[in-house]
From TrEMBL:
Coiled-coil spans in chain: none
A GO MF term: methyltransferase activity
The name this protein goes by in its record: Methyltransferase domain-containing protein
Pfam families reported for this sequence: Methyltransf_31
Keywords: Methyltransferase, Transferase
Keyword Transport among record annotations: no
Origin: domain of life: Bacteria
Source organism (scientific name): Streptomyces cavourensis
Length: 243
């Protein structure tokens, strides 16, 4: 493939990714079409939101979970699926010395770094493009690992065509399996593993993965949320290894 053909192919894929994806709730469609950078307020701060990044202000979990999480002052914190970086940047602002933010899209990585710079913690925040833990070194360890997951179970052969699908769906729960099975391997001694999950997810499938990983679930809190008359509560879970 020539360089011109590569550019054309990339533009074709980008155009396809901008098409409105099937299965999105109506309230998300306006965000899926957004092409401009926005500013929004959350947790008493103003944040930048780039095109192609999930808007964390449309549901309560980013604000709620970011407030609830314990931050190891002087320690290390890893966020999977950082989005625009609200939680990772807040971790640094609350005294975490080394923050690593992972996301599967480059737009989210760039957005996290942009907000880290905006709030003066760029030296404390590292952002990497990564499918769950793939970009980490095998020996990297963290005091706290957290993921506000894309809880909706999609078929194993599901093909993503838009970033918003990745934000709310996990094909075959492959990412959830990786988080639960591999997450404890990246914890320091005494480290803690947290998952944000919601009632649109498949609790039976999640329980299967917890059993496979040898983990016990504890619910730390629930955020009640109603969208279009349907209950979609968000829950912060912590995992402990079975004795």
């Amino acid at each position: 493939m020539t360089s011109t053909e590569k550019v054309t192919a990339n533009r074709t894929q980008a155009a396809a990714d901008r098409q409105l994806p099937a299965g999105l709730p109506p309230e998300l469609l306006v965000h899926a079409q957004r092409s401009e950078t926005l500013e929004f307020d959350l947790l008493d701060r103003t944040w930048d939101l780039l095109p192609g990044v999930w808007p964390p202000y449309i549901s309560p979990e980013t604000k709620g979970f970011t407030d609830w999480l314990p931050y190891p002052v002087g320690g290390s914190f890893l966020e999977v699926g950082s989005g625009c970086g609200v939680t990772s940047v807040t971790a640094a602002l609350r005294g975490v010395a080394q923050v690593t933010a992972l996301d599967i899209t480059q737009e989210a990585v760039d957005n996290t770094l942009l907000n880290a710079a905006r709030h003066g913690v760029a030296e404390n925040v590292r952002a990497l493009r990564s499918d769950v833990f793939a970009a980490l070194g095998p020996d990297e360890r963290f005091d706290v690992i957290y993921w506000d997951s894309n809880a909706l179970l999609a078929p194993e052969n599901f093909t993503y065509t838009h970033y918003m699908q990745r934000a709310i769906m996990d094909a075959g729960y492959v990412s959830h399996r990786s988080f639960l099975v591999d997450g404890p391997r990246h914890l320091t001694d005494g480290g803690r593993l947290f998952l944000g999950f919601n009632d649109s997810g498949d609790w039976d499938k999640l329980a299967e993965l917890e059993e496979e990983a040898g983990l016990i679930r504890t619910e730390l809190g629930v955020l009640e949320f109603v969208s279009n008359g349907s209950n979609a509560n968000f829950r912060l879970l912590e995992y402990l290894t079975k004795a």
